[in-house]
Amino acid sequence: MIRRDFIKTGSVGAASLAIGGIAMAKQSAPDYLPIISDRMDQGKYVGHYDEREITEPVALCDAKGLLNPAAIGWSRRPLQRCNLRGHWPRKKKWNFWCMISPDFAFSVTLMNLDYLGAAANAFLIDFKTKKRISATASSPLVRTGALPEEVEKDISFISNKFNLSMIHSENKIKVDFACRSLGGEKAVADFSIIKPAGHETLNVVIPWTPDRFQFTSKQNTLPTEGFVKVGDKRYVMDPKECHAVLDFGRGMWPYRTYWNWGAITGVQGSDIVGLNLGAKWTTGTGANENGICFNGKLTKIMEDMIWEYDPNDWMKPWRVRTGYTDMVNVTLTPIFPVLNHFNLGILEAGGAACYGSWSGTLKFEGRVVEINKLMGWGEEIRWKW
């Protein structure tokens, strides 16, 4: 197992990657982004810190399109308005949703990477058959409304391949999806993502520099009710065991980036438990995307996570833990790996997302919570974009 514990060792390994079942990286991606190398080289890194809680609405950018210092922090509901402007081609925008249950995961994404225009993706993973099917549509054959500045706004996508709409109301998000060919078969989805009253979410601004920054809203434990149908097979979304996870992202990204992301969501006994765990892209910024959502209430984790996994064998268990306290100690047992690699010259991406079940121990706010086989995923992704 590769040990990802640079908090103690101070080391960063060289990264190499070849994916697609031919060759795997011998080392994981570096522990922090090149954009903050000078800051990290000064030896002042501390893996735990105090993050400011934001309680009032705030604009992400100032009049020049630079990061508004008043926006730096985290909030329990999305208060940040992502008024991005300028800095072409560094703007990145996306709405990623994944609805996951013990039997399957269904995901839809709408994105705009500035110089590539609008694009969308949908996929379904059947954990029983160990099969994944997907469809992608991109410009110039796409008509889409602008991705909104705020999280809780409607989105829509219309193309010759598939149509998607997500319409917000006070207590739910109504989702309609139709695809001409998802894995070669016609697919439709009709479901609602329930927004329980008072449900708290994790909303964070990550500041690399005044002109490179990211706002993310990470949401989980949202019950989902409805269905996805592919060909003649119907996948039922039971709100007791199927939950939606959101990654809403708006920001100005550096060209070379990489990250770890872990999502955990499910019912444990009489409790509904969700975690969002990240690393690499936030390291050294004094902020992170780590939090526990327990029965709809958020506990912010104000320390970096240590990730341990083997990039030579993505199907080995992944362990993620806190290094300063014993707040989080969880392990992912993969069921299905999604390996990605594409290279379009200046645009390149690769990595692995392993879907499966998480087990372990959480200690927070006087509680000790044991989780056992909650669904989710862990990933390492690298971009040149």
Overview of this structure, please?
This protein has 385 residues and is an all-beta fold. The protein has one domain (2-114, 201-217, 241-384). It is built from 2 helices and 26 strands. The chain has helices at residues 6-9, 37-41, and strands at 2-4, 58-59, 74-75, 80-81, 91-100, 104-112, 118-126, 131-138, 142-144, 155-159, 162-168, 172-182, 185-194, 202-209, 212-230, 233-237, 243-252, 256-268, 271-279, 291-294, 297-300, 305-309, 318-322, 328-343, 348-364, 367-384. β6 and β7 form a beta hairpin. The longest helix is centred in the N-terminal third of the chain and has 5 residues, at 37-41. Mean pLDDT is 91; it is low at 1-25.
Order of helices and strands: EHHEEEEEEEEEEEEEEEEEEEEEEEEE
Distance between the termini: 30 Å
Helix content: under 10%
Q: How can the largest sheet be summarized?
A: 14 strands, antiparallel
Question: For the residues shown, what is the average pLDDT?
Answer: 91
Beta-strand share of residues: over 45%
Describe the structure concisely for a colleague:
With 385 residues, the protein is an all-beta fold. The protein has helices at 6-9, 37-41; strands at residues 2-4, 58-59, 74-75, 80-81, 91-100, 104-112, 118-126, 131-138, 142-144, 155-159, 162-168, 172-182, 185-194, 202-209, 212-230, 233-237, 243-252, 256-268, 271-279, 291-294, 297-300, 305-309, 318-322, 328-343, 348-364, 367-384.
